[in-house]
Amino acid sequence: MNARLTPAAATNPELDAFWMPFTANRQFKANPRLLARAKGMYYTTADGREVLDGVAGLWCVNAGHGRREITEAVTQQLETMEFAPTFQMGHPIAFELANRLAKIAPPGLDRIFFTNSGSESVDTALKIAIAYHRARGAGQRTRLIGREKGYHGVGFGGMSVGGMVNNRKFFGSSMLPGVDHLSHTLDHEHNAFSRGIPQWGMHLANELERLVALHDASTIAAVIVEPISGSAGVVLPPAGYLKRLREICDKHDILLIFDEVITGFGRVGKPFAAQAFDVTPDLITTAKGLTNGAIPMGAVFSQRKIYDAFMQGPENSIELFHGYTYSAHPVACAAALATQDIYAKEGLLTRAATLSAPWENAVHSLRGLPHVIDIRNYGLIGAVELEPRQGKPGTRGFDVFLKCFERGVMVRQTGDTIAMSPPLVIEPKQIERIIETLGAVIREVE
Ligand code: PXG
Question: How does pLDDT run across 155-165, given as a tens digit for each residue?
Fold first, then answer.
């Protein structure tokens, strides 16, 4: 029980004032789903039911819930120094965290800029890319290339390079100018029910050459992609696709940004997807698993050559006019360091590699169930795509999500795709439970 809530507010709160994010507010408030506590692999609802967490909260609680080490580190930091600025000042724990992160980063990405969320990490990386080219005397390189179905958060930059229609259409005229998009890589005809990485579609990366031919390389600052798209319903990179993007970027001096807000910190069996796919980008955006979701924090990993390009001019001049009051907030740093300790001690940054085969088998066992039109998986990520009901897209997916929740398993629904990304501490029995519940629900939902 939360000490700040009266018993009535804890079980039956007044719902009107909270304008909920990415939520059907009226539907939710008519039939609320309230989570009150969490431990290990489980949430407990306000009315006392246990729910197995199949999505690590929102792709962030990689080490499982209620980790005492994080609680203690945060508590201690709050008592020692609850806040300190990082503009023209510093605190040791921020440097310590940056050093620790540099050690697990792909080669060369050892300069770390701190933010408070994935959206801020993305906008930060886009700004660094543009300012980097300017610092090298190529200030005309301002164009940004994203991808259809991409999700890069909700800042104006991230929204503009993103490719999910509902996140864009309401804000149309406010998009950044000078943005173009690659095609997405989801293809049911060639790749439905691929196990792991699909074989067809590497050539889609060649579209980047087409965009270069259209706009000229000298106008393009960066390409940003999620190695695996999460929010759009788990879209995988075809074999060789990311390598090809890297080659084309190298050829034209374009920066490659991997948005690893979801794939970072062990989700795909290596610390980062960059390592899993053996492709080294110039910038990596992260958040979520950085602190196990316990305190908001994001980080942008930058190639040293990018950082170095800024380190010129008079030594008393600020090199990058960008940052947040809470960049490297000491309490977030404490949470992140404790999280990284847990990941290292328990081998969680590579555990998904050992679980990925049983996970793949479990998820693909749902093939053949009614309405299932595709199943996708990689690392500890899985998605089951259902055929939409005629004229009512998303309703079948929502019904499946709701019934799973009622039966004690939390999955994530995006349109008619059910996405799963359990904490990396999951045990085989819990994988079974998720899949059995989802399978039973899919059989029932018309
Ligand atoms: N980039 C990527 C790749 C993300 O997945 C963000 C940026 C933005 O992060 P913040 O911390 O600003 O929310 C994300 C966020 C889902 C889901 O259901 C995914 C996200 C957020 C909410 C829901 O797939 N990812």
Answer: 999 999 999 99
CA of 173 to the centre of ligand 1 (A): 23
Atom of ligand 1 nearest to the CA of 285: 1
Mean pLDDT of 329-348: 98
Q: How far is CA 107 from CA 125, 128, 280, 283, 304, in A?
A: 18, 19, 8, 11, 10
Task: Describe the strand order of the beta sheet including 35-39 as a list of residue ranges.
Answer: 35-39, 42-45, 50-53, 409-410
Query: DSSP H helical segments within 56-205, as ranges?
Result: 56-59, 68-80, 92-104, 118-135, 156-161, 165-169, 188-191
The pLDDT, as a whole number, for residue 1 is 54
Please provide the size of the chain in residues: 446
**pLDDT class for 74, splitting at 50, 70, 90?**
very high
For residue 417 and ligand 1, the question of a CB distance below 6 A is answered with no
Q: Return the C-alpha torsion angle 211, 216, 219, 224, nearest 10.
A: 30
Residue from 20, 22, 53, 58 to probe ligand 1 pocket by mutation (most atoms less than 8 Å from CB): 58
Cα dihedral 233, 237, 238, 239 in deg (nearest 10): -140
- The CB of 124 under 6 Å from ligand 1? The reply is no
Lowest mean pLDDT among 9-23, 37-51, 54-68, 390-404: 9-23
- As a whole number of angstroms, the distance between CA 299 and CA 261 comes to 9
The pLDDT tens digits of the residues spanning 286-327 come to 999 999 999 999 999 999 999 999 999 999 999 999 999 999
pLDDT-derived band at 198 (thresholds 50, 70, 90) equals very high
